[in-house]
Amino acid sequence: MRKLTNVLVTGGAGFIGCNFIHTLLLETSDFHGRIINLDNLSYAGNLFSLIEIEKKFSGTRYFFEKGDIADKHTVNTILEKYDIDTVVHFAAESHVDRSILGPEAFIKTNILGTFILLEGVRNYWNKTDISQSNVLFHHISTDEVYGSLGADGYFYETTPYAPRSPYSASKASSDHLVMSYYHTYNLPVTISNCSNNYGPYQFPEKFIPLVILNILENKPIPVYGNGKNIRDWLYVNDHVAAIWNILTAGNPGETYNIGGESEYENIELLHILINTIAKKTGISAENIHKTITFVTDRPGHDFRYAIDCSKIKRELDWKQTVNFLEGISKTVDWYLTNKEWIEKIRSGEYQNWIEQNYTSRVLK
Questions:
Q1: Domain residue spans in the chain?
Q2: What is the mean pLDDT of residues 35-57?
Q3: Which of 27, 84, 108, 119 is the most exposed place for a label (fewest CB within 10 A)?
Q4: Exposed, middle or buried by CB within 10 Å (0-12, 13-18, 19+), for 109?
Q5: Active site residues
């Protein structure tokens, strides 16, 4: 079992990253190390998601650094300051619609940022006494790099890449960069490609939280095209468990697909959410259905994603523990009981709070 001592988490204020930090520090008895969270706190990253962690562990086992992964000085300073032996690279621009409207940010963060990180750890680990058998750069990627499936079939680790949006193309590029450092420089790396995540702390622009909040606020629910596009849904805590297995037991140079094995058409998922929320709140399901609004499909909208995750199940003894309906119920409950979190990240209060509390943490 690989020992994790000083773990750099990039993008730890984002959805999956903050769930990862919560799990390791609050629930993982086998983890005794420190987490260094590097995040530039863009629109989708917020530290309200980590207030409990700050209160319990700040300055001892948890450290936050505000900075950009595309800044070489920032990355190199953090690697040396905290003697980093493990990198868990979540940080990414990840919204397809935003990538269509403005692809430049995706190229900078997802490609250049990943390159800066790789160069930083390659140079740092080569000049330190850290055992090369105990260092690892883990890169979190997406099933979208594989393109679009028809009605049948699955994405395997060996599926050729065929990205169809600026977002997925930038992630495909970063995947190739990461693996090239393994083959060229013998840098210990692993990659995971996951299906659509859902759960607590997800930014409200994503489909599931957007639907939940629009229902609660009696707003129209937008659905692309005819709503027949199919996605495989993975509860975020199951994803975090898979990452932990890769970090502690994964083989360098390997890619692992992580899927929920829960495929639903968007419109089918919407009906599940409507019925779940109606039962929990007493809002009329019939009235909610009247707010469904079909909108023009986005360019290059992939029809179906579906992951075969038999490799990580077989080799690293991982499996999902939360079935989809249970996960949806947990997710709806979280948004119903965390209205303060929602209000704060939507308001100007959040940016003011960041400036007052964290501007001084920017590395000079």
A1: 6-361
A2: 91
A3: 27
A4: buried
A5: 143-144, 167
